[in-house]
Automatic annotation (TrEMBL):
<dbReference type="InterPro" id="IPR013810">
    <property type="entry name" value="Ribosomal_uS5_N"/>
</dbReference>
<dbReference type="GO" id="GO:0042254">
    <property type="term" value="P:ribosome biogenesis"/>
</dbReference>
<feature type="region of interest" description="Disordered">
    <location>
        <begin position="1"/>
        <end position="56"/>
    </location>
</feature>
<dbReference type="InterPro" id="IPR018192">
    <property type="entry name" value="Ribosomal_uS5_N_CS"/>
</dbReference>
<comment type="similarity">
    <text>Belongs to the universal ribosomal protein uS5 family.</text>
</comment>
<dbReference type="InterPro" id="IPR014721">
    <property type="entry name" value="Ribsml_uS5_D2-typ_fold_subgr"/>
</dbReference>
<comment type="function">
    <text>With S4 and S12 plays an important role in translational accuracy.</text>
</comment>
<dbReference type="Pfam" id="PF00333">
    <property type="entry name" value="Ribosomal_S5"/>
</dbReference>
<dbReference type="InterPro" id="IPR020568">
    <property type="entry name" value="Ribosomal_Su5_D2-typ_SF"/>
</dbReference>
<dbReference type="InterPro" id="IPR005324">
    <property type="entry name" value="Ribosomal_uS5_C"/>
</dbReference>
<protein>
    <recommendedName>
        <fullName>Small ribosomal subunit protein uS5</fullName>
    </recommendedName>
</protein>
<dbReference type="GO" id="GO:0005737">
    <property type="term" value="C:cytoplasm"/>
</dbReference>
<dbReference type="Pfam" id="PF03719">
    <property type="entry name" value="Ribosomal_S5_C"/>
</dbReference>
<keyword id="KW-0694">RNA-binding</keyword>
<feature type="domain" description="S5 DRBM">
    <location>
        <begin position="60"/>
        <end position="123"/>
    </location>
</feature>
<dbReference type="InterPro" id="IPR005712">
    <property type="entry name" value="Ribosomal_uS5_bac-type"/>
</dbReference>
<feature type="compositionally biased region" description="Basic and acidic residues">
    <location>
        <begin position="32"/>
        <end position="56"/>
    </location>
</feature>
Amino acid sequence: MADELNNAEGGTDGFPQGEQRQGRVGRGRGRGGNDRGGERGGRGRRDDRNKRDEEQGEELIEKLVHINRVSKTVKGGKRFGFAALVVVGDGQGRAGFGHGKAREVPEAISKATAAAKKKMIRVPLKEGRTLHHDGKGHFGAGKVTLRSAPQGTGIIAGGPMRAVFESLGVADVVTKSNGTSNPYNMIRATFEALGEQTSPKSVAARRGKKVADLLGRGGASAAVAEVEAAAITE
């Protein structure tokens, strides 16, 4: 008699059989729901990050410099992938580079772009179009020389170096590359030379002087030095 009562009610726990089965299914969905909730949370964080970038109004210039097919030897054969080198910049004096590897080309480019955005540097520009002074960079077998140029010169650079200056926002510059033509070494040497760029304003602040005093030491009159100092914004 007790067994018949238990079967009629759905079990010894006092719940009807249908409700008990629904409770089990609910617990199973709860476990799965946690995983899906985590995925939704990850997408939410990425969406928030994208929204912050949009709110900041930062439009970056992305340049794909080089892409190469790479392989890894594993048990049973070779596993092929792709390596990408990307340069990004805002066109207003900030630029960075990065590289990434993946099994597919789009994923490799996205990894390289994300790495480049994390390593962006600020380069002071003269009148917003050229460098303040000449510079040299060296990395591995790559040697580069950068020279400021008058207005209308354009970007006289080839290969990876052109991508750097276009994304940086430089309009007039003359460059020369010696040694290797490896794009990785050329990019690193170029950024080493850009990292040594200084502006008259930063030098004057470091030395405790006025910008006009530094510009006047080159033989210019005091009035011309004052005008040039007022024109320097960075």
